[in-house]
């Protein structure tokens, strides 16, 4: 694996290998090995043009646990604010001999553009680009589901909310479909649903009660207002009534349905607090798995 910009073209065996490797990393950490030296001498740059809590922190933690040096590039205090163009920034940073750049950008396709313009052998890892892809989130969601529901041939997953603007939904679908999920349901108001032709592996629902019925896992998505130009949204209370996950709706799902959310969650808009904090919630487990998946990806790419 040289770069990771999307899961779309990643073979199933590569996805499975990364998930297995994440479990190895988890077990190593659980047995008290807080730091491995797999990436000693390597330098990894976090280049985030959009805000992040989970992804940036877990990439940093993952890199440090593997013994790499990490630089968190501060966009606000960088020469980007003086008008430096993205590829000039890239070449400037490459001249400092980096091994990998972890990039998040609001424009879809930016990580692939960096791959095309890179002049050194730097690896590029997508930490989320526009509404296109968030591959490590797709991997950590697949890992979280696999830990509880290992037989994907019987797995029904419902992904609900602002699917149209969600890079997480796209990467989740790529991962789950590759791993052989029985059924992937996408649900949301018509204005927030993508074109069905983009998701041939999925079934589409406008009614959340129908979408969640019998589901083994439900992945809730927040309204990505920062990516909406002119969509006429219902008010938040009305949205919650139609598309919020509360205890009544969760009772329609399969027994023990996994409640998931990539975060950040918006309580009372797409998910009720009692469900987000309830016994079926795997939201914080997803966060923990994010560190192990990112250790697996960095190890796979950069270990000598
Ligand atoms: N899931 C996710 O990408 O969260 P952050 O925006 O906090 O990184």
From TrEMBL:
L-aspartate binds at residues 82, 167, 222. One of its GO terms (molecular function) is aspartate carbamoyltransferase activity. It catalyses: carbamoyl phosphate + L-aspartate = N-carbamoyl-L-aspartate + phosphate + H(+). It comes from the Bacteria. This is Aspartate carbamoyltransferase. The gene is pyrB. It is an enzyme of class 2 (transferase). Heterododecamer (2C3:3R2) of six catalytic PyrB chains organized as two trimers (C3), and six regulatory PyrI chains organized as three dimers (R2). PROSITE patterns: CARBAMOYLTRANSFERASE (PS00097). Its EC number is 2.1.3.2. Residues 2-147 form the Aspartate/ornithine carbamoyltransferase carbamoyl-P binding domain. It comes from Dyella jejuensis. Carbamoyl phosphate binds at residues 54-55, 104, 134, 137, 263-264. Signal peptide: none annotated. Pathway: Pyrimidine metabolism; UMP biosynthesis via de novo pathway; (S)-dihydroorotate from bicarbonate: step 2/3. Keywords: Pyrimidine biosynthesis, Transferase. HAMAP family: Asp_carb_tr. Residues 157-298 form the Aspartate/ornithine carbamoyltransferase Asp/Orn-binding domain. Belongs to the aspartate/ornithine carbamoyltransferase superfamily. ATCase family. The keyword Magnesium does not apply. Catalyzes the condensation of carbamoyl phosphate and aspartate to form carbamoyl aspartate and inorganic phosphate, the committed step in the de novo pyrimidine nucleotide biosynthesis pathway. InterPro entries: Asp/Orn_carbamoyltranf_P-bd, Asp/Orn_carbamoylTrfase, Asp/Orn_carbamoylTrfase_sf, Asp_carbamoyltransf, Asp_carbamoyltransf_Asp/Orn-bd. The keyword Transferase applies. Pfam families: OTCace, OTCace_N.
């Amino acid at each position: 694996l040289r770069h990771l910009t999307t899961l779309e073209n990643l073979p199933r065996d590569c996805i499975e290998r990364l998930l297995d490797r994440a479990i190895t990393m988890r077990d190593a950490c659980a047995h008290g090995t807080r730091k491995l030296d797999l990436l000693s001498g390597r330098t990894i740059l976090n280049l985030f043009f959009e805000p992040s809590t989970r992804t940036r922190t877990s990439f940093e933690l993952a890199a440090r646990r593997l013994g790499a040096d990490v630089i968190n590039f501060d966009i606000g205090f960088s020469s980007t604010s003086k008008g430096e163009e993205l590829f000039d920034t890239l070449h400037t940073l490459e001249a400092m001999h980096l091994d990998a750049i972890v990039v998040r950008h609001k424009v879809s396709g930016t990580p692939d553009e960096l791959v095309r313009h890179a002049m050194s052998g730097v690896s590029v890892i997508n930490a989320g680009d526009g509404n296109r892809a968030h591959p490590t989130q797709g991997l950590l969601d697949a890992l979280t589901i696999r830990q509880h529901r290992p037989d994907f041939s019987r797995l029904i997953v419902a992904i609900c909310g602002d699917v149209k603007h969600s890079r997480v939904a796209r990467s989740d679908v790529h991962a789950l479909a590759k791993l052989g999920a029985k059924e992937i349901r996408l649900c949301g108001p018509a204005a927030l649903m993508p074109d069905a032709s983009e998701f041939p592996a999925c079934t589409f629902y406008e009614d959340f009660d129908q979408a969640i019925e019998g589901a083994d896992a439900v992945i809730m998505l927040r309204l990505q207002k920062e990516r909406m130009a002119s969509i006429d949204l219902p008010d938040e209370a009305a949205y919650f009534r139609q598309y919020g996950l509360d205890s009544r709706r969760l009772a329609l799902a399969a027994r023990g349905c996994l409640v998931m959310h990539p975060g950040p969650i918006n309580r009372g808009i797409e998910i009720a607090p009692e469900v987000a904090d309830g016994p079926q919630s795997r939201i914080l487990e997803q966060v923990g798995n994010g560190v192990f998946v990112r250790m697996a990806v960095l190890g796979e790419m950069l270990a000598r």
